[in-house]
Each structure stands twice: as structure tokens, then as C-alpha cells.
Write a structure and sequence with these properties.
Mean pLDDT: 83
CATH superfamily of the largest domain: P-loop containing nucleotide triphosphate hydrolases
CATH architecture of the largest domain: 3-Layer(aba) Sandwich
Order of helices and strands: HHHEHEEHEHEEHEHEEHHEEE
Number of strands: 12
CATH topology of the largest domain: Rossmann fold
């Protein structure tokens, strides 16, 4: 019988909450997702090396088992991945653009990576840490002029935003991008820059998107990057990175956070320390009343006012129920 790794004593509280889900997970895919989420929040130091190794071994075994069995969902017209973290971002792109390498560099997941097309065969979620939150990234098989799974549309529809990964070392990255857009429009999908308001269109699925130009570690790609920027529609500002060398990833994380159009708010209880590791997540434009509703129904129905601590504010100032929340506000609710 395999001996379990001794449990480190300094694991964060959310580790134990997520670990509970593992005991009730019914599918192999769900177990892999939960274990990868646990890996993303385990502190990285010598005391947790055995625990990390244990989960990585279990994940590898489960993935091997999945490869030996046909996955019916990948052949069906739909493929649903439950949202987790502060937002869900689907990653798309042409073959060999480096999507899986990017997932590996941004998260603790260990996707299969190869120098050949279609290494990724089914959607695969992983959690990306950003400051004090986690963002769910979904790796997907490549999209080509003749290949796009029906469930690509469903995943893009259900996600909060889209990341387009392109290879700067490709013969023609501009052509790759436009072929991708054409294939998406063929499926009634239209992508917009994060700075642009999305107009309602019943005929099209409209989503916010960020363009990532990968493999900038090659010295000869600078001209391609400049040329690519000139061809873009107004509003699109691409991010230049190297997933394999981990260049530009911190900037990319910030851009992904902005792409989600979310903010973090902390609940302040009088006389107690504020927990800055577990913020409430809201869409920009949310109010104190949205915060009150999330805390407890009594606050929502009986709220009189709130006090707020935040950037560029009078600390502890009194605000009304319609105050619009800002990122990293500390809110003290009063009923």
C-alpha cells in the first residue's frame, strides 16, 4: 500500500475546502481538475515537495487512464466545463502556437506538449494564480480553416473572455490571425478588444478577446511583431511573450485580469482583521447592494449604509447603498 505524503502544517485554508471536493468527485476528469486546482494553491517550498509530487503522480496516472478510454464528450456536439475561480478564459489559436506551453508556464498544470499539431485533443482547465485570486484557463485543440470542433462555440459562449495565441515565428502570423477570425465568423463568433463595448447582436456570439504573440525570444521576430500591430483593428493591443522562456508573463496576467472586467472587494468586520486572501469578486459597475446580497440576505434587506476604506478615499468614509465598488475596496456594512 502506497504511503501518503505527510501533510504540511502551513497549507492555506482554501486547500482543505477544495480537498473535500476530491472525496465526492465522480469522474476522472473532475478529479484531475480538483488536483490541479490544489497544486495551484499549495505553497512552493521544501516542506510541500512530497505533497506536490504525490498529486503530480496521481494526475499523470489518471490522464494515462483517460487516454486508454474513449472520451464520449469529445465526440459530442457539446462540452461543458464548470467555472472556477474569479473568471474563465478560453485559449484558442492555430496549431503549434504554444497554447499548452503557455498553460504550463502560467499554472501548475502539466499538459502534454509536442512539436506536432493537435497534441491537445480535448479541452483542459487549469488555474492561474494572480495576486490573491485564481483565474481558470482552458486549453483547447487548435483551430484551422478546415478544423473546428462544434463545442469550441459552446466553450467560447460560456467563457468570460477569449485569449488568442499566435506564433510569431510562423511564416505569416498576420495570415494565421485572419484565417482564425474567418473560421470563427463562419461559426457566427465575433471577437472584440477589451477596451471596446460589445454591441448586442442576436446573429453573432460576441466576446472580448486578447491577442497574445508567442515566441518573442527569437531575435528575428521583432519586425513581424511591428508588422502585425499595424494590421490590427483599432482597440486591439497585442501582448508579446515567450511562454517557454517565461518572458512577459506578469504583464500578460495583468492584461487577463483587466480583460475579465472584474474587481475584488473585501468584507470588513468592526474590530477584526480583514482577510485579504479571499476577496469577493464582482463585475465592474457593481454596487454596495451587490456586496450586501453576497454577504447575507439580511444585509441586502436591512442595509442602512456602509463605510469604505480604499485607494484615493477618506478612510472609513460613509457611503450610500448605490455606491459603485472599486477594485480592492474594504467595505464595512451596517444594518
Amino acid at each position: 500500500m502506497q504511503r501518503e505524503a505527510r501533510m504540511p502544517t502551513n497549507l492555506p485554508p482554501q486547500y482543505f475546502e477544495i480537498e473535500k471536493k476530491l472525496k465526492t468527485a465522480s469522474s476522472t476528469k473532475e478529479k484531475i481538475f480538483i488536483m490541479e486546482e490544489l497544486l495551484s494553491i499549495i505553497p512552493k517550498h521544501k516542506g510541500t515537495e512530497k505533497l506536490q509530487a504525490l498529486y503530480k503522480t496521481k494526475i499523470a496516472k489518471l490522464k494515462f487512464q483517460m487516454q486508454k478510454k474513449p472520451i464520449t464528450a469529445s465526440h459530442s456536439s457539446s462540452f461543458y466545463i464548470e467555472k472556477a475561480g474569479a473568471g474563465q478564459v478560453i485559449i484558442i489559436g492555430p496549431p503549434n502556437s504554444g497554447k499548452s506551453t503557455l498553460i504550463k508556464s502560467l499554472t501548475n498544470a502539466n499538459p502534454e506538449i509536442g512539436d506536432y499539431p493537435f497534441t491537445t485533443r480535448i479541452p483542459s482547465p487549469a488555474m492561474m494564480p494572480f495576486e490573491n485570486i485564481q483565474v481558470q484557463l482552458i486549453d483547447t485543440p487548435p483551430i484551422t480553416p478546415i478544423y473546428m470542433k462544434a463545442w469550441h462555440h459552446e466553450l467560447i459562449k460560456e467563457s468570460d473572455a477569449t485569449l488568442i495565441v499566435l506564433d510569431l515565428t510562423s511564416t505569416n502570423p498576420v495570415k494565421d490571425f485572419h484565417l482564425l477570425l474567418e473560421k470563427l465568423k463562419e461559426k457566427n463568433i465575433d471577437l472584440f478588444p477589451d477596451s471596446q463595448e460589445i454591441s448586442s447582436n442576436k446573429q453573432l456570439l460576441c466576446k472580448k478577446a486578447l491577442i497574445v504573440l508567442n515566441k518573442n525570444d527569437i531575435s528575428s521576430v521583432e519586425e513581424k511583431f511591428i508588422s502585425f500591430k499595424k494590421t490590427l483593428l483599432p482597440g486591439f493591443i497585442p501582448v508579446s511573450i515567450s511562454a517557454s522562456h517565461e518572458y512577459g508573463l506578469e504583464n500578460l496576467k495583468k492584461r487577463i485580469f483587466c480583460l475579465l472586467n472584474i474587481l475584488r472587494v473585501y468584507s470588513k468586520t468592526p474590530g477584526k482583521e480583514v482577510d485579504l486572501n479571499n476577496p469577493f469578486i464582482f463585475k465592474k459597475g457593481s454596487t454596495v447592494m451587490d456586496m450586501a446580497k453576497s454577504v447575507h440576505k439580511d444585509f441586502f434587506h436591512k442595509l442602512k449604509f456602509a463605510r469604505i476604506w480604499g485607494k484615493n478615499k477618506f478612510q472609513g468614509q460613509k457611503v450610500n447603498r448605490n455606491y459603485i465598488l472599486q477594485d480592492e475596496d474594504l467595505i464595512e456594512l451596517h444594518i
